[in-house]
Amino acid sequence: MKKVLLIVWLFLQLPFCLHAQEPQRFFELHYIDDLIFMNENDLLVLGADEAAYVALYKVDENGELINMVVLPSIQDNNSLRHLARFGDGSVGLFVTKYSNDTIHLKKMTVHEDLSVDTMDFNWVGYDFYRFLAGGEQWVEDALGNYYYSYYVDTLWTSGHHGLRILKFDGNGELLTERLIDDPVPSSRGCYMFPTPDMMGCRIVLAGNGGKSTIYNCYTLDGDLNTVAVKENIDQLSYPLQCGWQACFRMNPYNGRTYTINMEVEVIPDPNAPNGSPLVVHNQDVLMSMFDAENFEQLAYTWGITSEIPCTPGKPNSIDFAENGDVYMASGMDKPDNWFFSKSLYIVHLDEDLNKLQEIYYREDNAELMYFGGLRVGSEGDVFVKCQVAKSNMTGTTGAIFKVPKEAFDGIDEAHDAGFAVAVAYPNPGKNVLNIRTALQNARVEVYDMSGKMVHSQTLTGNVTAIEAGDWAKGVYVWKVYTGVSTGSTTLVETGKWIKE
Fold it and tell me: How many other C-beta atoms are found inside a 10 Å radius of the C-beta of residue 455?
């Protein structure tokens, strides 16, 4: 009886009020491709219903549907279904259409009433490597010209591809083109984004670095001539930066480029025939910053680190607030499926890459499969999209979560919005319990189900690894306190961890 009362007492100590509400499900749809602000208040959402009809949805600041329109011209045989803001302030998307081994390019401009103007580019391609779209990128310069790249089919060899870059004027007429095949671009990485002056483009291409991949940055002018080459761009964090399918975004407020990616190491598998490559996971999300002029790596910082791989590259996202602050998002806590994640990680950083707040969100009995899509509103609210898979569902539901600006202001505000500021992983786990938090002056305590403290430790870094190999199997309660050095401790986060 005393043991039962002690367990009840222990759970009464857990601050359930810290998670008083769930993050707001702003908008739901069968599948969501992308989102962008159409104006100061309304979101434009690109997605599909259960019948797989691709459509545009205009949603107001409360998540209410204003209007929708089906896009019959991009239902089949297309790619690049991502929304963009063009240089004239309008929004829309670029579409690649496949037909009889050829490709055609389209630009679609979406108006406030969801009417769509379509411009066909005066060009047909015949050498597009359709089976690997990673090289397919778009950039617009300050003069309204468009740059487009893709992997070349006829240059495919052993997982490497030549890269063709095309430049079109604002009417879709081809101005010039260039082929890059020395060094041969790898299929593991191609990222194009504008130069800080918006008069050319930068392309980051993967190259072979032995056990890992090395990324080189090529700065091209408006005529596609090489202005500069920055080799091994991750010189500070090398070889840790060499992630697969990173997200690169140029910050228009300071010209710097910010990245978020996943780090992996590929080595031969000794148990496989012919030493087939084996992906070995070391760390997960790495965030970096490069200067505007020379693309020198100025700083880097780790996001989620886990024994369980995080969402790979392109599903990661970056956006910027009007003051130049940086927001990044990624999935975390992966199950067995490599491309899925169970929960969500969002970090707010200043323009120098200093972390201002990290928040985490997980739903019980659900997986939040984060495939990219993060937008910061004019008021500082953040919107992220996920596919939500419930344990009692046969499929998934697309959801946009609204993260209010206040969630990044402090601990109480994050809790009020339904987010955590510390997380334990992997959960369930075996020999190591990791506590991750950006909180300073903090301590973690771990209790077994009898209420006995089994561990206490000051948190000195973003991740604290606790050896749990000698602990008995079962459920443990962890608690994180702040104000340790002042003697006025406050319980700010708690949760249950299962040792298998």
Answer: 16
Comparing C-alpha atoms, which of 303, 302, 352 is closest to residue 323? 352
| Residues 396, 400, 406: CA angle, nearest 5 degrees | 140
Residue 122, pLDDT > 90, answer yes
- Residue 278 in this model has a pLDDT that exceeds 70: no
Residue type, position 332, single letter: M
Position 395 pLDDT exceeds 60: yes
CA separation for the pair 215, 234 (Å, rounded): 7
pLDDT at res. 462 = 77
Report how many helices (DSSP H) and strands (DSSP E) the chain contains, helices first. 2, 37
Return d(Cα 2, Cα 183) in angstroms, integer: 72
Estimate to the nearest angstrom the gap between the alpha carbon of 366 and the chain centroid.
Answer: 19
Alpha helices in 393-489 (DSSP H): 411-416
CA 391/CA 463 separation, integer angstroms: 30
Say which residue, 327 or 440, is predicted with more confidence: 327
Read off the tokens for 37. Answer: 């602000």
Degrees (nearest 5) of the Cα angle 264, 300, 386? 60
| Tens-place pLDDT, residues 174-225 | 999 999 886 656 666 788 999 999 999 999 887 655 445 678 899 999 999 9
Spell out the residues 6+ positions from residue 106 whose beta carbon is closer than 8 angstroms to its own.
73, 94, 95, 96, 97, 118, 119, 120, 121
- CB of 97 within 8 A of CB of 78? yes
Residue ranges in 114-252 assigned as alpha helix (H): none
pLDDT of 15: 39
Instruction: State the average pLDDT for the chain.
Output: 82
Q: What is the DSSP letter of 16?
A: G
Percentage of residues in the chain with pLDDT exceeding 90? 45
Amino acid at 283: Q
Q: How many CB atoms lie within 10 A of CB 244?
A: 18
CA pair distance 18, 413, nearest whole angstrom: 10
Identify whether the C-beta of residue 184 lies closer than 8 Å to the C-beta of residue 162.
Answer: yes
In sequence order, what are the beta bridge partners of 374?
A: 384
Cβ atoms 344, 360 nearer than 8 A: yes
DSSP string over 448-466: -TTS-EEEEEEE-SSEEEE
> What single letter denotes the amino acid at residue 485?
S
Under the banding of pLDDT at 50, 70 and 90, the label for residue 371 is low
Other Cβ atoms within 10 Å of 189 Cβ, number: 24
Above 50 in pLDDT, residue 13?
no
DSSP code for 441: S
Q: Give the C-alpha separation, 498 to 275, whole Å.
A: 37
Whole-angstrom distance, CA of residue 305 vs CA of residue 284: 5
Q: Compute the distance between CA of residue 24 and CA of residue 383 in angstroms, rounded to an integer.
A: 10
Token pair listed for 494: 């708690």
**24-29 vs 54-59, strand pairing mode:** unpaired
